[in-house]
Design brief:
The chain has helices at about 50-65, 80-90; strands at about 5, 15-20, 30, 40-45, 70-75, 95-100, 105-110. With about 120 residues, it is of the alpha+beta class. The chain has a single domain (about 5-110), classed as Gcn5-related N-acetyltransferase (GNAT) (Aminopeptidase). The protein has a four-stranded antiparallel sheet, with helices on one face. A three-stranded antiparallel sheet has the order 5-7-6. A hairpin with a 6-residue loop joins strand 1 (about 5) and strand 2. The structure holds coenzyme A.
Length: about 120
């Protein structure tokens, strides 16, 4: 069964990943800002390590294309090896922007593509 996203009517930037072959409730979520910034990418703990994070980010990229974006950018903490592996595996590359927040150092990654518009 195909995996799909739904968005929150009250918070239309927030998307939920559904994997109906596993469970009827969402298995993860992500937010897409009008600027094309992706944040809060998360697969709920019990569903990690099954390819759902990759699927979630792929679907968010498709959503960004549909919204007319030609890139997705995000920040990832430098120590988050799992997320870094996920994004680099999908073709994201560093923009050169980096900083530090309360968690630690982060880097900005970007994936460019052709928009659907
Ligand atoms: C990051 C996250 C979304 C990945 O979701 P997931 O469903 O577990 O990931 P997937 O099963 O789709 O795996 C995708 C890639 O992630 C990496 N990965 C996944 N599990 C991993 C692990 N245990 N160790 C190292 N890398 C791992 C690999 O690069 C993997 O690609 P591969 O299968 O080709 O090796 C999930 O771990 C999560 O929600 N983490 C907490 C929140 C977070 O850190 N979000 C990112 C904020 S920028």
């Amino acid at each position: 069964m195909p995996r799909h996203l739904t968005f929150d009517l009250e918070k239309p930037w927030r998307w939920y990943l559904h994997a109906p072959e596993i469970i009827s409730t969402p298995v993860g979520r992500a937010n897409l800002a009008p600027s094309g910034y992706l944040w809060g990418v998360e697969v709920y703990e019990e569903w990690r390590g099954r390819g759902l994070g990759r699927e979630l980010v792929r679907l968010m990229i498709a959503a960004a294309k549909q919204q007319g974006h030609c890139f997705v950018r995000l920040r990832v903490h430098a120590t988050n090896d799992v997320a870094l592996g996920l994004y680099i595996g999908l073709g994201f590359s560093p923009t050169g922007l980096e900083g530090t927040d309360s968690v630690g150092p982060w880097i900005e990654l970007e994936l460019e593509f052709e928009s659907d518009e």
